[in-house]
Amino acid sequence: MVPTAPASSGEPLVLGIETSCDETGVALVRGRELLVDTVASSMDEHARYGGIIPEVASRAHLEAMIPTLERTLGTADVDLSEVDAIAVTAGPGLVGPLTIGASAAKALALALGKPLYGVNHVIGHAAVDELVHGAFPERVMALVVSGGHSSLLLVDDVATSVTELGSTLDDAAGEAFDKVGRLLGLPYPGGPHIDRLAREGDPTAIRFPRGLTARKDQEKHAYDFSFSGLKTAVARWVEARQDAGEEIPVHDVAASFAESVADVLTAKTIAACERHGVSTLVVGGGFSANSQLRDMAAERCAEAGIELRIPPIRYCTDNGAMIAALGSAVVRAGVAPSSLDIGVDSSMPLTVTHV
Ligand code: KG4
Ligand code: ZN
């Protein structure tokens, strides 16, 4: 029989485990209060390959899991027996890394006799904001942008009711930044470097294309994103200057490229808020560190009368708190726990909050 979380305690203590990519995250959340969040990253091991190597990430998760768990419990001065429920990322993400986290969570659930909740990583990026800015109002829009995802979600209930309005058809926003970074000769990941260069460039210097904003795309892809055409346009522009023996104005290229990404992300998101009568926007995912996106979102939300909620950056990058936060919401919603034989799903649909 699957054990259930205490029904009447109101504020169960949830342990969250995240391993979908290169961060091993373990956190403890009670209700909407974050007690401790511990993250170990294997990014340094991937940097020299210019991308995440799943096998390297899996091994790093395996090595980091128990020390990260012990550090979390020790910092919170909590004994494992006090944990009421265990939440773990069930997808989307890399299969090997996800499997390490899910195996650890299942072992803990079985050994402790506590309920297991397999939850959605992308929705976790939105849910974590409840730990920072408090309970969500009835309906929020969530823009989740990182190296792996660019998704627009209409959240009626973060635990049980999420609608995917749109997603990227090709590259995620961070991925596009990393690819343009590579072609400009910047170290991996290129995103933060482009951000820095862009701050000193002219965003109007070059008019790069705005993906999926043409009239013909308005119907089918109103809230979808596409950044691969933009990336190609930047590559062509740079190559043409190189072929002509001209110097590349990297600051202006970075600024004009970043402007295109921020423009499309914010324009589509605000249009979606207006269309659905939503007055609160949550932005999450590692790419929300991007200054061009932050500035434009702040400006356009203020103009449109939309409250903008962006958690501090450590809660935007992958972490255990986001999984514990969503797990906690799912427990509060009284949802039945996951079976101990759940599998991981690398392409888990964004409408599935938990499995
Ligand atoms: O959420 P995250 O840490 O990992 C993924 O799940 O992908 O996001 C990392 C991504 C990388 O593509 C990185 O280049 C990008 O976000 N990124 C940025 C900035 N900081 C991180 N891109 C642009 N500007 C930034 N300031
Ligand atoms: Zn993520």
From TrEMBL:
<keyword id="KW-0408">Iron</keyword>
<feature type="binding site">
    <location>
        <position position="178"/>
    </location>
    <ligand>
        <name>substrate</name>
    </ligand>
</feature>
<feature type="binding site">
    <location>
        <position position="318"/>
    </location>
    <ligand>
        <name>Fe cation</name>
    </ligand>
</feature>
<dbReference type="GO" id="GO:0005506">
    <property type="term" value="F:iron ion binding"/>
</dbReference>
<keyword id="KW-0808">Transferase</keyword>
<keyword id="KW-0963">Cytoplasm</keyword>
<dbReference type="InterPro" id="IPR000905">
    <property type="entry name" value="Gcp-like_dom"/>
</dbReference>
<dbReference type="GO" id="GO:0002949">
    <property type="term" value="P:tRNA threonylcarbamoyladenosine modification"/>
</dbReference>
<comment type="function">
    <text>Required for the formation of a threonylcarbamoyl group on adenosine at position 37 (t(6)A37) in tRNAs that read codons beginning with adenine. Is involved in the transfer of the threonylcarbamoyl moiety of threonylcarbamoyl-AMP (TC-AMP) to the N6 group of A37, together with TsaE and TsaB. TsaD likely plays a direct catalytic role in this reaction.</text>
</comment>
<feature type="binding site">
    <location>
        <position position="121"/>
    </location>
    <ligand>
        <name>Fe cation</name>
    </ligand>
</feature>
<keyword id="KW-0479">Metal-binding</keyword>
<feature type="domain" description="Gcp-like">
    <location>
        <begin position="34"/>
        <end position="324"/>
    </location>
</feature>
<dbReference type="InterPro" id="IPR022450">
    <property type="entry name" value="TsaD"/>
</dbReference>
<dbReference type="InterPro" id="IPR017861">
    <property type="entry name" value="KAE1/TsaD"/>
</dbReference>
<keyword id="KW-0819">tRNA processing</keyword>
<dbReference type="InterPro" id="IPR043129">
    <property type="entry name" value="ATPase_NBD"/>
</dbReference>
<dbReference type="InterPro" id="IPR017860">
    <property type="entry name" value="Peptidase_M22_CS"/>
</dbReference>
<dbReference type="GO" id="GO:0061711">
    <property type="term" value="F:tRNA N(6)-L-threonylcarbamoyladenine synthase activity"/>
</dbReference>
<keyword id="KW-0012">Acyltransferase</keyword>
<dbReference type="GO" id="GO:0005737">
    <property type="term" value="C:cytoplasm"/>
</dbReference>
<protein>
    <recommendedName>
        <fullName>tRNA N6-adenosine threonylcarbamoyltransferase</fullName>
        <ecNumber>2.3.1.234</ecNumber>
    </recommendedName>
</protein>
<dbReference type="Pfam" id="PF00814">
    <property type="entry name" value="TsaD"/>
</dbReference>
<feature type="binding site">
    <location>
        <position position="191"/>
    </location>
    <ligand>
        <name>substrate</name>
    </ligand>
</feature>
<comment type="similarity">
    <text>Belongs to the KAE1 / TsaD family.</text>
</comment>
<feature type="binding site">
    <location>
        <position position="125"/>
    </location>
    <ligand>
        <name>Fe cation</name>
    </ligand>
</feature>
<feature type="binding site">
    <location>
        <position position="290"/>
    </location>
    <ligand>
        <name>substrate</name>
    </ligand>
</feature>
<feature type="binding site">
    <location>
        <begin position="144"/>
        <end position="148"/>
    </location>
    <ligand>
        <name>substrate</name>
    </ligand>
</feature>
<feature type="binding site">
    <location>
        <position position="195"/>
    </location>
    <ligand>
        <name>substrate</name>
    </ligand>
</feature>
